[in-house]
Amino acid sequence: MAEILKGSAVAAALNEKTIARVNELKEKGVVPTLCIVRVGERPDDLSYENGAVKRALAVGVNVVKRTFTTDVSEDELIAAINEINCDSSIHGVLMFRPLPRSVNETRVCNALKPEKDMDGITDLAMAGVYAQKPLGYPPCTAQAVIELLDHYGVDLTGKNVTVIGRSLVIGKPVAMMLIKKNATVTVCHTRTKNVPEIAKNADILVAAAGSAGMVTKDFVREGQTVIDVGINWSEEKGKIVGDVDFDEVEGIVEKLTPVPGGVGGVTTSVLMSHVAEAAKRNAR
Fold first, then answer.
1. pLDDT in the model for residue 236
2. What is the model's pLDDT at position 239?
3. d(CA 88, CA 52)
4. Which helix (H) or strand (E) segment is 141 a member of?
5. CA dist., res. 153 & res. 169, Å (int)
6. Is the backbone peptide bond immediately before 260 cis, with ω within 30 degrees of 0?
7. 231-249 pLDDT, tens per residue?
8. pTM above 0.90, yes or no
């Protein structure tokens, strides 16, 4: 049976570090502050927002909100972001997407200063991930994968890692971050041939395709570490499941993250660590 890599222990360790950093900043008169920008009231946005607010309260990060109805104009959103950019008391921004189709999402996102971009939504923040420069911050979920591997002592140096998925939210940035850790990375996607064979040859497998249960026993072998980033609703099972068929894979691989309770539980802690870091950089 696989060792289950739970996210709760990773989150707790990150929270402890963030609390210490926040307390140091508050002693200097700096209150790390996150601004949440939300358009509409999508249930998944509200759920993540509630979790983020609770986590912020727990680590001492202040939260302000800018909410808009779905008929908001592009100019109105950009004007609000410009105000946030100029507000020195706000150190980081979390903006929920997708935005309404009536606005140019790329233009709105890139109106945000990259140094206030806590979740890698701006082009410059993503360029920083690829160039390994602190222009902004990587997507929280991608960073959560790295934090989880680090916490459980999974050495990436010289290891073959297969990432299934090439999205800008997880697949591409996590591949770059794994390379920074000296891993040799293969990225698989919908046009890749023989994905099960490629996945089985990896030392570490990161499943981030957004397809419930696609990683079966045919994708894995003994000795592997499997990180499941997927969050999917299964009508058949009546619950949230990952991209990995947990029941099939658990008895084969060496280490495995659960869904829920794995990577997803680390993301808000990463978000708060980004806010604390942004406040520290701003205070220099």
1. 79
2. 86
3. 21
4. helix 140-151
5. 24
6. yes
7. 998 887 888 899 999 999 9
8. yes
Give the CATH superfamily of 140-265.
NAD(P)-binding Rossmann-like Domain (3.40.50.720)
By three-state DSSP, how is residue 67 classified?
A: strand
Within 100-175, strands assigned E span 160-164
Q: What is the mean pLDDT of each run of 10 residues along the chain (284 residues)?
A: 96 98 97 98 93 97 97 97 98 96 96 97 95 92 98 97 96 97 97 97 97 96 97 85 96 97 96 97 82
User: Using an 8 Å Cβ cutoff, are 259 and 230 in contact?
Assistant: yes
Sign of the alpha-carbon torsion through 141, 142, 146, 152: positive
Q: Comparing C-alpha atoms, which of 272, 267, 265 is closest to residue 61?
A: 272
Within 10 Å of residue 252's Cβ, how many Cβ atoms?
17
Task: Provide CATH 3.40.50.720 ranges for the chain.
Answer: 140-265
Cα–Cα distance for residue pair 217/104, rounded to 1 Å: 42
Q: Where in the chain is the domain with CATH 3.40.50.10860?
A: 29-114
Tell me the three state secondary structure of residue 244. strand
Closest C-alpha to 259, from 244, 245, 241, 234: 241
Closest CA to 90 of 66, 126, 67: 66
Structural element, H or E, at residue 207: strand 204-207
The correct answer on CATH 3.40.50.150 for the domain covering 29-114 is no
What's the confidence (pLDDT) of residue 233?
85
For position 222, what pLDDT does the model report? 97
| Percent of the chain that is helix, strand, coil (3-state, to 5) | 45, 15, 40
Neighbours of 193 (CB within 10 A): 7
- Range 180-189 burial, b when 16+ CB lie within 10 A, else e: ebebebbbbe
